[in-house]
Amino acid sequence: MIEDERIIEMFFGRSEQAIQELDIKYGKVCHKLSYNIVNNRQDAEECVNDAYLGAWNAIPPASPKPLLSYICKVVRNQSLKSYYKKEAGKRSGQYKIAMEEIEDCIADLNTVEDQVEARELARMIENFLDTLTVENRVIFMRRYWFSDSCKNIAEFTGLSEKNISVRLTRIRQKMKNYLSEREVFI
């Protein structure tokens, strides 16, 4: 499989092969991430294609490292745009369910001031994640970043679905306490 640096060089050389190589290397992850959010194969395909176009337009001048994190973020953003456009009023899909689980831990961002404070909250959550074991951090990220189901996380980690559910509940409570101790009002 081709290295990320070579794919980025192809983008800089404006070779359409870059998108093909990106898809070969990370397409499966991108499609799964998008599907977990939009809950529709065709919409997921469209979001991934839009993300690839976004990468094409951004590279150059951007030279993302690591490439996987970059493309996942672009795919996630495209998928969220699609999700909110089509599913805002419905309680469907793993993304909506995952966000409902965690909403008690974080404040609603209705004002510009709240949005500015969101950056600080993101930094605090990153610091909180550093306090978790690697396994619990993976479980948290797969659930709340990649919108994986508890079943999929259980299969990935080799733990039971019930164990994943219990761990997520404990992690959310731990995060709520962590943020509360730092006077982040929820």
Give structural notes:
There is one protein chain. By secondary structure, the protein is mainly alpha-helical. It contains 9 helices and no strands. The protein is globular.
Descriptive tags:
186 residues; Rna Polymerase Sigma Factor, Chain: A; Arc Repressor Mutant, subunit A
SSE blueprint:
Elements: H1 4-12, H2 17-38, H3 41-58, H4 67-87, H5 93-102, H6 112-131, H7 134-144, H8 150-157, H9 161-181
Helix pairs in contact: 1-2, 2-3, 2-4, 3-4, 7-9, 8-9
Can you give me a brief rundown of this structure?
The protein is mainly α and 186 residues long. 75% of the residues lie in helices and 0% in strands.
| Estimated share of beta-strand residues | under 5%
Shape: globular
Helical proportion? Answer: over 70%
Regions with pLDDT < 50 over 5+ consecutive residues? none
What's the total number of strands? Answer: 0
- The ordered H/E elements are HHHHHHHHH
Structural class per helix/strand content?
mainly alpha
CATH architecture of the largest domain: Orthogonal Bundle
Question: CATH homologous superfamily of the largest domain?
Answer: Winged helix-like DNA-binding domain superfamily/Winged helix DNA-binding domain
CATH topology of the largest domain: Arc Repressor Mutant, subunit A
Distance between the termini: 45 Å
Radius of gyration: 18 Å
CATH class membership of the largest domain: Mainly Alpha
Whole-number count of domains: 2
**Overall pLDDT level:** 84
Question: The biggest beta sheet, please?
Answer: none
How many DSSP helices?
Answer: 9
